[in-house]
């Protein structure tokens, strides 16, 4: 089931100070899905950057079920390596459910494994499915499996 994943990186807020000299941040965001990565422009000297940048990813059925949409927020440095601010991961399962939501939009916490939450990222994600071109005319999109160690008491 081919389709297009439409992603809009709107902006960020409450980013941490990454440049000691200016007390600000030169932020940009990398958006990754599967093997494809896109970058926003660098918003210089602000803790609340606004990008309003759109990206598109061509997707297949298998990718939608196996991959997460990943956003990495970085601080650009001219001389040294860029500094990671944090990451946001978006599960696409709500978009692939037949009766699911049409888009995911909102402010998501930017998380760093060492320092915790380091601001918020505003994004919008939409999925446009073209047609079911599966040669067997079956698809497993929307099927979710759960595991547990024992049966619930009602069984």
Please, could you describe this protein's structure?
The protein has 155 residues and is mainly beta. 6% of the residues lie in helices and 46% in strands. The protein has 2 helices and 8 strands. The protein has helices at residues 61-66, 93-96, and strands at 3-13, 27-33, 36-39, 50-59, 69-75, 83-90, 103-112, 116-129. A hairpin with a 3-residue loop joins strand 7 (103-112) and strand 8 (116-129). The radius of gyration is 19 Å and the shape is globular.
Give descriptors for this structure:
8 strands; 155 residues; four-stranded antiparallel β-sheet; mainly beta
Strand content: over 45%
Number of helices: 2
Strand-and-helix sequence, N→C? EEEEHEEHEE
Coarse shape: globular
Q: Which runs of at least 5 residues are low in confidence (pLDDT < 50)?
A: none
Widest sheet, order of strands = 4-1-8-7
The biggest beta sheet, please? 4 strands, antiparallel
Q: Evaluate the radius of gyration.
A: 19 Å
Proportion of helical residues: under 10%
Q: Count the beta strands.
A: 8
C-alpha termini separation: 36 Å
Report the structural category: mainly beta
